């Protein structure tokens, strides 16, 4: 699959998470939550998601700040996100270079947003699945920091729990900062967005 960016093509923005109400407010679903926030910010009116059976995703085709985008939330579980994401790229003819993936990041302090293209997955099974399915790591990641689990809590338990009481007030800020980072990428490209966000 070609990794060359096509400036006339829509950007594919994927928010990672697990399906169903039981997972909706958990740390692992911050990517999907940010995708919802981006849909609310779409113009000329908020966008709504609909099931796209061919890609096993919920999608919204819309514009954000004048940019044509496809917002997508895979309906698969996080660890097998690659199938839906690869299907989305193929169906909408989007190169990996034009893919933006929003996800939770353990190795970044809670509330911090970092941007990068390519590189390792840091133990994130959703990213690993995407890289394997695409055959490349050359896509942009918007990394929403959730921090490390406290004490001896296991990583799997931590990411599948709702945010802690002392974090709740700051979750909307993390979502807004992540959403703003995506918009900066759309407007000015990754490097300029990194300079603004980091």
What does the model show?
The protein contains six helices and seven strands. The model has no long low-confidence stretch (mean pLDDT 93). By secondary structure, it is an alpha/beta fold. It has a single domain (11-121, 131-170, 183-197), classed as Peptidyl-tRNA hydrolase (Rossmann fold, 3-Layer(aba) Sandwich), CATH 3.40.50. The two termini are 30 Å apart. The protein is globular and about 50 Å long. The chain has a seven-stranded mixed β-sheet with strand order 2-3-4-1-5-7-6. GO terms for molecular function: peptidyl-tRNA hydrolase activity; tRNA binding. One of its GO terms (cellular component) is cytoplasm. The record marks 104 as: Stabilizes the basic form of H active site to accept a proton. It holds the Pfam family Pept_tRNA_hydro.
Helix/strand layout:
Blueprint lengths: L10 E5 L14 H11 L9 E3 L4 E8 L2 E8 L7 H10 L7 E7 L7 E5 L7 H10 L5 E6 L9 H5 L11 H18 L1 H8 L1
Parallel strand pairs: 1-4, 1-5, 5-7
Antiparallel strand pairs: 2-3, 3-4, 6-7
Helix pairs in contact: 1-5, 2-3, 5-6
In whole angstroms, the N-to-C terminal distance is 30 Å
Total helices: the number is 6
Pairing-aware structural class of the strands and helices? Answer: alpha/beta
How many domain regions?
Answer: 1
What is the fold-level CATH name, i.e. the topology?
A: Rossmann fold
Question: What's the number of extended β-strand segments?
Answer: 7
Give helix % range: 25-40%
Q: Report the sheet with the most strands, covering strand number, pairing sense and barrel closure.
A: 7 strands, mixed
Task: Please state the overall shape, judged from the principal axes of the Cα atoms.
Answer: globular
Strand order of the largest sheet: 2-3-4-1-5-7-6
Radius of gyration: 15 Å
The CATH homologous superfamily corresponds to Peptidyl-tRNA hydrolase
Low-confidence stretches: none
Q: Which range does the strand content fall in?
A: 15-25%
What is the CATH architecture term? 3-Layer(aba) Sandwich
Indicate the CATH class. Answer: Alpha Beta
